[in-house]
Design goal:
By secondary structure, the chain is an all-alpha fold. The chain is built from 16 helices and no strands.
């Protein structure tokens, strides 16, 4: 998912002479981004390449299969992490600008959000077309059970492309070409739209007065989107999770002051305990239960971020600046891994006779599984090199096109290095 940084994102934790991108806190944000993206990839790999462990005989199950199945249970929580980071980076930046000046350049704000998303999303939709076409016509994916061709082609119609490009997937159409990961981009985009209206309605600007009109627009917009939504996390209620990130950006101390390692341990312990204790069917059958669970995950992660943000001597995360390199392709990885996995499975079935919904029978199963994940990461690295990496340049070009004269505040804008769904 997309996440950008704006100037001031980690201002409180950065000495004036230091670069915000080099602070330990910034590196922790990078670590959270790529680990969350990897959690999503692991889950979708397990869903596609392996048979559900509950659907195979007890004597066929192995310790490795149990371990991998455990790891596939954190994709949804990873998306909640993305939502909080998005609110922290995008919403926090806008909130600080409003507090500082009593206004905000909404045209620049919206342009940055759209460029950040479209620079990766539009090429990703094109990659979906190429990968699915290859799976169908080069590797006969339908005969191997990988696709229902009629359903797939319906989800790849031109109208579906436009619908996804306008971030209406889950509301007016399915995710393009069965790329299920794209559902969360709809939530993200509409949170980007709703938040400035919320700020205008709740906080006095230069005129010094509040108005109910923006609040009515927020309520109407999110209400209509949620009413028509047929899959994914509810757009309206889950806005609270995005706003928790804004709270982290403006708060001066964590609600529960803990040392960062302890706050992280509490967060991880909750995730592990609930993964072991609560079956996936409970979440699938009760959206209200899922929302309540997600709010607890959000509260614990937000508290962890605040503990990290306010720590007097925060050490950098493991891997140091490598986290920044990995995070720099996390949005691309999120957007393209599903069609890559499907293409890999179709090709493997065509050439080897295995690769889709495999029952683990030996080392070859895990070699194929790891190869599929490795292909996703390698392809995302190359894809990000020609898309995500150039987001800043595209933004500057679009800004020049929209503003013939030098933009007055251009020197104050720090263009994000990554993001989509969670940018700044």
């Amino acid at each position: 998912m997309p996440i950008d940084r704006e100037d001031g994102t980690v201002r409180d934790a950065t000495p004036p002479a230091a670069s915000a991108a080099d602070t330990p806190f910034s590196l922790w944000l990078d670590a959270f981004r790529w680990v969350a993206a990897l959690c999503v990839v692991i889950t979708h790999t397990g869903n596609r390449l392996l048979t559900n462990i509950n659907d195979i005989e007890l004597h066929q199950r192995t310790v490795i299969h149990y371990g991998f199945t455990f790891l596939t249970g954190f994709a949804h929580q990873a998306v909640m992490v993305f939502f909080v980071l998005s609110g922290f980076l995008v919403g926090g930046s806008l909130m600080r600008e409003w507090q500082r000046t009593g206004t905000a350049d909404l045209r620049l704000y919206l342009m940055k959000r759209l460029v950040r998303l479209w620079t990766v999303l539009l090429p990703a939709l094109g990659l979906v077309i190429a990968a699915n076409a290859a799976a169908l016509w080069l590797f006969d994916a339908q005969s191997h059970g990988v696709f229902d061709t009629r359903d797939l082609l319906g989800r790849m119609a031109p109208g579906a492309f436009a619908c996804n490009a306008l971030f209406l997937q889950t509301v007016a159409c399915w995710e393009y070409g069965r790329n299920a990961a794209l559902w969360s981009l709809s939530n993200e985009f509409w949170y980007y739209v709703a938040f400035p209206l919320l700020v205008m309605g709740l906080f006095p600007g230069r005129a010094g007065w509040r108005t109910l009109m923006p609040l009515a627009l927020v309520a109407g917009l999110l209400g209509v989107l949620t009413a028509f939504q047929f899959t994914g996390a509810w757009i309206g209620p889950y806005f609270v999770i995005w706003l928790a990130g804004v709270f982290v950006a403006v708060a001066r101390r964590p609600p529960v002051p803990l040392r960062p390692w302890m706050a992280g341990l509490v967060f991880l312990a909750f995730l592990v305990a609930t993964r072991l204790a609560i079956r996936r069917e409970v979440f699938e059958s009760s959206p209200l239960f899922t929302l309540g669970y997600d709010l607890v995950v959000t509260a614990l992660f937000a508290n962890l971020l605040l503990c990290l943000k306010t720590a007097p001597a925060l050490p950098p995360p493991p891997l140091g600046r490598l986290n920044t390199r990995f995070a720099g392709m996390s949005f691309s990885l999120y957007c393209i891994h599903t069609p890559i996995l499907t293409l890999f499975a179709a090709a493997s079935m065509h050439w080897l006779g295995v690769g889709w919904r495999m029952v683990p029978r030996g080392a070859e199963t895990w070699v194929l599984t790891m190869a599929g994940m490795g292909l996703c990461v390698g392809t995302a690295f190359a894809f990000a090199h020609v898309t995500e990496r150039h987001t800043d340049a595209v933004r500057r070009w679009v800004q020049r096109m929209l503003t013939p004269k030098p933009y007055p505040a251009a020197k104050k804008v720090m263009y994000p290095r990554y993001g989509a769904g969670t940018d700044g």
